[in-house]
Amino acid sequence: MTAQDTTGDEGLLVPIDPTALTTSIARLEQAQAQATDADPADLLHQVLESAQSLFGLSGLGLMFIDENEALRYVAATNTAVHALERAQEELGEGPCVDSLVLDEVVSCEDLSVDDRYRAVGAVVAAHGIRAVLGVPVRLGGAAVGTLNVHRDRPHAWDDSDITAMRAFATMVEAVLRTLLVAQRHSRLAEQLTYALENRVVIERSIGFLMARHGFDAVAAFDVLRRASRSTRRKVGEVAADVLAGRELPTA
């Protein structure tokens, strides 16, 4: 992963100091150990802000599978990344949507010219969001959310970027596992529990829609999302209907 862009007149990027990365993760592990007394939202913001500073990023956010919206933002370090998450949530497209559905890292060098995400790019252009990286956040062996990373200028994400953010996503996962136990009655824990309990049925229904209607995985997920909204039912219930062979309004 590269450090901040303001390293000199040439705008060269400086490789991150491995010692700094180790130190930062150690601090987060200490925060994780104290999670029983921490506010879940505050702890997540602490984790995200640490990554933003360490990696010289413009912003980070976290999204989860949600019972009513299919995908909802949970935390963001600033208003720009909040706008990015809300746009993806509303439009059902974006690097972080793809990352969740495909359970893999998805990169975008410049959102303003990426044909895959024209609708999202147009919405967030005013917020200065250019390069975006979506990293899956996994619990119970499956992706239940995504870590959303962005820069305010075009950036070709390389292997070191992806390796570093995967490592940080692993730290986020460890914090979330602790919160599930320590804060089981919080709203965040409820969201995580729902995501865990419904991820399998959602994945199976996506596969069913792909086979039956010829959708790709992201389009199939969007069908579930839209059907959940239009019928005002939980996305897990809609997914179960699909597996039972019932037609959906948008299918």
Topology:
Layout lengths: L17 H16 L6 H16 L3 E6 L7 E5 L2 H13 L3 H8 L3 E3 L9 H7 L6 E9 L2 E10 L7 H24 L4 H27 L3 H15 L3 H9 L8
Antiparallel strand pairs: 1-2, 1-5, 3-4, 4-5
Helix pairs in contact: 1-2, 1-6, 2-6, 3-5, 6-7, 7-8, 7-9, 8-9
Q: Can you describe this structure in just a few lines?
A:
The chain is α+β, with helices and mostly antiparallel strands and 251 residues long. The chain has helices spanning 18-33, 40-55, 79-91, 95-102, 118-124, 159-182, 187-213, 217-231, 235-243, and strands at residues 59-64, 72-76, 106-108, 131-139, 142-151. The model is unreliable at 1-15 (pLDDT under 50).
Could you walk me through the main structural features you see in this protein, from its secondary elements to its overall organization?
The protein contains nine helices and five strands, in the order ααββααβαββαααα. The chain is of the alpha+beta class. It has a domain at about 190-245: Arc Repressor Mutant, subunit A (Orthogonal Bundle). It has a five-stranded antiparallel beta sheet, with helices on both faces. β1 and β2 form a beta hairpin. α6 (about 160-180) packs across α7 and α7 runs parallel beside α9. The longest helix has 27 residues, at about 185-215. The protein starts with 17 loop residues before the first helix and ends in an 8-residue tail after the last helix.
